[in-house]
Design a protein that fits this description.
Elements (H helix, E strand, L loop, with lengths): L25 H44 L22 E7 L14 E2 H11 L3 E5 L3 E2 L13 H13 L5 E8 L8 H7 L3 E6 H4 L8 E4 L3 E5 L3 E2 H5 L3 E7 L2 H17 L24 E5 L2 E10 L11 H11 L3 E6 L2 E2 L1 E2 L6 E2 L2 H13 L2 E7 L9 H8 L10 E6 L18 E5 L2 E5 L3 E2 H5 L3 E7 L12 H13 L4 E3 L15
Parallel strand pairs: 1-2, 3-5, 4-9, 5-6, 13-17, 14-21, 17-18
Antiparallel strand pairs: 1-10, 3-7, 7-8, 8-10, 11-12, 12-22, 13-19, 15-16, 18-23, 19-20, 20-22
Bound molecules: 2-acetamido-2-deoxy-beta-D-glucopyranose (12 copies).
């Protein structure tokens, strides 16, 4: 399968960063030309709309012809443009969630926008270009020999992606080598439908995986969240993410990260050191983007891992998490699929107390209330349980130390034949200051070898007159909903539960 996915390298460049230049130029040119065309268009509309439209079509056709006859034809623009510190139009931020079927929260629980709706909306909004990064694609049940009608939304998303190129929306996809979706034909099918696909060999590059999950639509809207392009993410796995509409600067910034994967998806690519300046960012923890999101004044930036994929100016994902923990004054609420204060894969059994220490220090030194909601499913690794118990044991009301751990258990119900599902896949943190929405498990390997991103949003939710209107307020409500639900089990109350592997011990 891997060997059938070779990509043509169509031009040679003398730059020291040869591997960074890529043969995929149509989008860039489209968008930069389009920008100037829009300007022209604006003027010409006054003189006569028809003339303008004819011109656009003519230039577009000329581009297509150029490309067909001259595959070496390449843009003189940098592969990535610098973000200006603004967003076009009115930016909106929307919390999106996927709640597994047959998980009953009772009648008055509130939820984010369903992930399936959010994805459909982004697809229908697209007019020019969609770039997607996902660990893997597996949008039909047959990929894993499962016959379940709950794969219908997944199939539908796959069909909609196949139809995008017919709408002249150019689609690029990056996925990981190694992969877990060895039987999936999604990527091949997408290629047959004109989607540009690259698989990035993180196994070779960093001995990790590409675990990032995000979409960039028309260089204007973005999605970041826990969900892979997997049918189970829509109906069988609990997911959380955000969509930001109408923020060109963040989309341009995220595009730099996409572009770093894209160029590393070329055969034999090697990681540049340092990354060329075009990958630098002007938006980071020190200089976040100031923008009104859904009308709320916010400071936003995107963090990334692994460090070897980040220019100096990019805040590393681990730094973003530590800084959010360090700034909290009242509470730190964490919901992660996996929390593990050690290296699990690469340096097996190496203790890694970096996040652990930051959490304990917040609880000890600043009396911040720490709550950790960790997933437990049928496939979870029980070796983390003693670590969780040791954190939980620090709770002491007489010393004003408040650390509590609960296990989030999604009932398997009658869905027993669907592997690697019925689990809380969320990866976020909310404090009295920030919302952090990421794609990584909280264990050493994810921040060292594995590609992931985090979105950090600071808003003054605590003092807001209507905290429900802020992302930070909404995320806190989601955490509180789950923490107080029957699905969050205090460690000492974990009896026999076949849906959680920890309870078998
Ligand atoms: C593209 O570039 C390669 C290498 O420089 C060259 O061999 C080839 O002839 C060029 N193709 C076209 C169509 O110009
Ligand atoms: C983006 O902003 C424009 C106006 O600035 C608005 O018309 C459009 O509906 C917005 N798009 C989305 C998806 O919110
Ligand atoms: C559900 O709504 C009812 C009526 O508004 C309220 O009394 C009750 O406390 C709510 N339950 C929860 C769990 O929020
Ligand atoms: C892939 O298909 C083979 C043959 O049907 C099967 O043995 C294997 O378990 C499948 N792998 C996955 C990940 O479903
Ligand atoms: C899948 O299940 C449906 C009903 O649950 C059944 O009608 C169909 O024949 C099954 N398909 C396969 C390939 O087993
Ligand atoms: C796509 O582009 C082609 C060539 O520019 C044009 O003929 C066609 O009408 C476009 N299709 C759509 C759906 O916009
Ligand atoms: C990549 O490396 C392999 C093995 O060294 C070599 O055979 C192949 O030609 C290289 N491909 C490119 C595009 O450089
Ligand atoms: C955000 O909106 C307020 C008004 O609600 C306005 O005064 C402020 O300039 C806006 N900030 C940005 C960065 O657009
Ligand atoms: C994240 O953690 C879960 C739980 O241990 C694990 O099953 C999963 O493989 C991890 N994700 C990846 C991509 O390794
Ligand atoms: C705990 O907090 C309360 C209220 O802030 C304070 O009065 C008390 O002295 C604190 N106790 C310790 C041991 O820090
Ligand atoms: C599982 O249970 C739900 C709810 O009771 C039901 O709608 C569904 O058909 C069942 N699915 C299977 C595979 O039994
Ligand atoms: C991260 O990876 C480097 C090698 O790439 C290794 O030297 C270092 O010990 C690793 N750190 C952790 C925390 O695993």
């Amino acid at each position: 399968m891997c060997s059938s996915m070779k990509f043509k390298v169509v031009h040679e460049l003398s730059s020291p960063y040869k591997s960074l230049h890529d043969n995929y130029v149509s989008n860039r040119r489209d968008s930069s030309r389009l920008t100037s065309l829009l300007l022209i268009l604006g003027c010409l509309t006054i003189l006569g709309g028809l003339l303008a439209i004819a011109l656009v079509e003519k230039v577009r056709n000329q581009e297509k012809i150029d490309e067909a006859v001259n595959p070496n034809h390449t843009s003189t623009h940098e592969p990535v443009q610098n973000a200006d510190q603004s967003c076009l139009g009115k930016s909106r931020i929307v919390l999106v969630e996927s709640i597994p079927y047959w998980m009953d929260y009772g009648s008055n629980a509130t939820f984010g926008v369903p992930l399936y709706e959010a994805w459909k909306d982004l697809i229908s909004t697209a007019t020019k270009q969609i770039d997607v990064s996902s660990f893997y694609w597996s949008l039909t049940g047959q990929d894993i020999n499962v016959n379940s009608s709950t794969d219908k939304p997944g199939r539908d998303i796959l069909e909609q992606f196949k139809a995008l190129t017919k709408r002249n929306v150019s689609v690029r996809v990056v996925a990981s080598i190694p992969t877990v979706a060895s039987n999936s034909t999604d990527l091949r099918t997408l290629k047959e439908h004109g989607v540009h696909v690259r698989r990035v060999n993180f196994g070779r590059l960093t001995r990790g995986i590409l675990h990032t999950k995000f979409w960039i639509v028309d260089r204007r809207h973005i999605y970041i969240g826990s969900a892979n392009m997997d049918w189970r993410a829509l109906t069988q796995v609990k997911e959380l993410g955000v969509v930001i509409y109408n923020c060109t600067s963040l989309a341009t910034d995220l595009h730099k990260i996409f572009q770093s994967y894209w160029v590393m998806g070329q055969q034999n690519a090697t990681i540049p050191d340092p990354w060329p300046s075009s990958y630098d960012t002007s938006i980071n923890a020190e200089k976040p983007l100031h923008v009104n999101l859904s009308g709320v004044p916010s400071r936003v930036y995107i963090s990334a891992s692994p460090p070897v994929f980040c220019p100096d100016s990019r805040t590393k994902d681990l730094e973003a998490i530590l800084s959010a923990i360090g700034q909290a004054e009242q509470f730190i609420h964490v919901a992660v699929m996996e929390y593990f204060p050690a290296s699990k894969f690469f340096f097996h059994h190496r203790y890694w107390p970096v996040i652990e220490n930051a959490l304990k220090q917040s609880a000890f030194d600043r009396n911040v209330v720490v709550r950790l909601l960790v997933s437990c499913g049928r496939d979870s690794d029980p070796s983390v349980l003693p670590f969780l118990k040791s954190l939980d044991a620090l709770e002491s009301s007489s010393d004003n130390i408040s650390i509590e751990v609960r296990l989030h258990i999604v009932p398997v119900a009658n869905q027993t034949d669907i592997p690697y599902s019925r689990v809380n896949h969320n990866k976020y943190m909310v404090t009295d200051k920030v919302a952090y929405i990421g794609t990584s498990n909280w264990s050493a390997d994810y921040f060292n070898t594995t590609a992931g991103v985090g979105l950090v949003v600071s808003q003054d939710a605590v003092h807001s007159s209507s905290p429900g209107d802020t992302l930070v307020g909404q995320l806190k409500a989601v955490f509180d909903r789950d923490w107080g639900s029957k699905f969050a089990v205090p460690l000492e109350k974990l009896g026999h539960n076949p849906d959680c592997s920890f309870s078998k011990r």
